[in-house]
Write a structure and sequence with these properties.
It is built from ten helices and ten strands. By secondary structure, it is an alpha/beta fold. The chain folds into two domains: 192 residues, Alpha-Beta Complex (2-enoyl-CoA Hydratase, Chain A, domain 1), CATH 3.90.226; 49 residues, Lyase 2-enoyl-coa Hydratase, Chain  A, domain 2, CATH 1.10.12. A six-stranded mixed β-sheet has the order 1-2-3-5-7-10, with helices on both faces. The protein has a four-stranded mixed β-sheet with strand order 4-6-8-9. Helix 1 packs parallel to helix 2 and helix 8 runs antiparallel to helix 9.
Length: 259
């Protein structure tokens, strides 16, 4: 019997992996989401965190919300609030977050992947927002994060029809960033996370903040934030290492500390 619905381990230095473990298809119950939110809140306080991988099982990244909890409008309010707390906290982690998608990523499962920064999918993965087939709409980011990623027309097509996309179509849509063989998904996500964790973490974190916040504002405000963050990077140890390494050895040879 699995005691915890969400597991946390550190398979690489400075790389944390969050794994959903609620057989058979990782239905996202309020209990699971509460565990996820607690784990994410703890990770956000880790000074040595460089990157995060979010994974599911062979059969499903997550096949959606636990429909058994959809018992009425009051329950719906609790469910969407619980989703919001977990996914907003995940999106706010100040380091790269990569979804490793095998099997189904549907409904809330796709919305979990959308709360990540990057997505690696297995070649037989299936992704979609099928809520309309229940007579409802996405309630955990599908109408907001999805169009920001793939554009409004493609998002409307997915939300209105509830159809599942194959991995290759999801790649064309820009819904996923890489497609690999199913057996290679975890390794590919960890390799990507490792490469980012070995980078200039403070600069990467500032870039993430500026990109994410800037998407919701006007260009001038975004450019002001970028200028402030650019200046802030010069107070980091990694900027000293990177600039000195460039001047001495040329580009791409700096060994960053993450500070």
């Amino acid at each position: 019997m699995i005691d915890s619905l969400v597991a946390l381990d550190w398979p690489e230095p400075r790389v944390a992996r969050i794994r959903l473990q609620r057989p058979p298809l990782n239905a996202l119950s309020c209990a699971l989401l509460s565990e996820l939110a607690e784990i994410v809140s703890g990770l956000a306080q880790q000074d040595d965190l460089g990157a995060v991988v979010v994974a599911g099982s062979d059969r499903a990244f997550a096949a959606g919300a636990d429909v058994a909890e959809f018992t009425g409008s009051e329950a719906a309010a609790t469910v969407t609030k619980t989703f919001r707390r977990a996914f907003d906290a995940l999106a706010a982690i100040n380091r790269p977050v990569i979804a490793a998608i095998r099997g189904f990523a549907l409904g809330g499962g796709l919305e979990l992947a959308l709360a990540c920064d990057l997505r690696v999918a297995g070649d037989t993965a299936r992704l979609g927002q099928p809520e309309v087939l229940l007579g409802i709409i996405p309630g955990a980011g599908g109408t907001q994060r999805l169009p920001r990623l793939v554009g409004p027309a493609r998002a409307k097509d997915m939300v209105w029809t509830g159809r599942m996309l194959r991995a290759d179509e999801a790649l064309v849509f820009g819904l996923v960033d890489r497609v690999v063989l199913d057996a290679e998904v975890d390794a590919a996500a960890l390799e990507w996370a490792r490469s980012l964790a070995n980078g200039a973490s403070a600069a990467i974190g500032l870039a993430k903040q500026v990109i994410d916040i800037g998407l919701n504002g006007d260009l001038a405000t975004g450019l002001d934030m970028e200028a402030d963050a650019f200046i802030a990077t010069f107070a980091t140890k990694d900027s000293e290492i990177g600039i000195n390494s460039f001047l001495t050895n040329g580009p791409g040879k700096a060994k960053f500390t993450g500070a």
